[in-house]
């Protein structure tokens, strides 16, 4: 009696090349990264800002998440991961066809562009459907825009933000993603960006700082006193961000393999170390540990390990945590006060320090500490190694520095041009009357109904900056206005 063919052989839902474990992990990792934005950063933003900006800040994150997804599948995925148009940009096209989405996911072709003494190795194709990769990479694109939003909270015109999101995704994010991940010139040159230290964090930090400059500052009263309206909810959002980072870095190998496990362990080690170092510095200089400061330290640790999570040993993750808990702390607390440019630009949540500085630090440390055996497990260019391990490591560090300069310059220029173009049609900053009132004026909604129906905003009663001028923590004036004299 003839037996029925195996399940995998006759159902298109399970083709021969599909590895169900890899596919399950990739979808899980994508969901974890998605949860970092929705609801992670939505909750964090809504609670870390002044009460009158809770709804607006949450909505900016919510809108970006939805808008990026539609732009991603209609055009941007293939600009970042499709066929080459320029050495730094892919050809845009929809990623919606059934045949495309159920096909096997592809990695960039291995073409040797540079005669630099290295050889590109043949990379294994991911053993899951293209649909899994499209969604996984979407969550990275979305969180980049949401992180960028942290620089302009509390004053950017919501209509300008709605126009900015798709334009920045098209003209800025896709360039960095293609150049470093999608088969562009930095990818083939051998620059290491394991999971987005440059593509996501350096980009969002530089672009956010640039946007803050062009949008302009918050009201003087908001900038001088910007206390979080709910520290416990802020911790909940921060916790979602931390736990979601296991998918952020663990999904980078495109497989449920040993490298994914190493990345998850290193990610958590670095974040914990950085949080403890940052908190210790707060205690030393401010005599008390700050919860907001601890969240900032957690963030810089997560960012710093990202470009090398699966490529460094765990002792190196501790070293990176020590540096990510101290160097961004110094730029935020000391350098900020001494720099006239940093003082002039109102970066509401200190995204420049927590993402640009920490992302650059992580990329350069990866160029120093990337372990050769781990590099061979996943990188397309052989002979990759950190300078600490000798050989061609010094060249690797130089590559990391050049790539950082490219990403910084592109985001500075592209963000400026996009905002100047929008300004022709939409004011970038809200009018002062809306800035005085906040959510009720902008959205007709408020986060907390703390007074009676129909009661109007009264600055003598409802503006906390007029009531309490004492500051129990150096962080209550915003996420980056807390400087010290040494």
Automatic annotation (TrEMBL):
Q: List where in the cell it is found.
A: Cell membrane
Keyword vocabulary terms for this entry: Ammonia transport, Cell membrane, Glycoprotein, Membrane, Transmembrane, Transmembrane helix, Transport
Q: For this UniProt entry, what is the primary localization, expressed as one broad class?
A: membrane
Q: Does the keyword DNA repair apply?
A: no
* PROSITE patterns per the UniProt record, alphabetical: AMMONIUM_TRANSP
Q: Name one GO molecular function term.
A: ammonium channel activity
The record's listing under PANTHER family reads: AMMONIUM TRANSPORTER (PTHR43029:SF39), AMMONIUM TRANSPORTER MEP2 (PTHR43029)
What protein name does the entry list?
Answer: Ammonium transporter
Give the organism, scientific name. Vigna unguiculata
| Phylogenetic lineage | Eukaryota, Viridiplantae, Streptophyta, Embryophyta, Tracheophyta
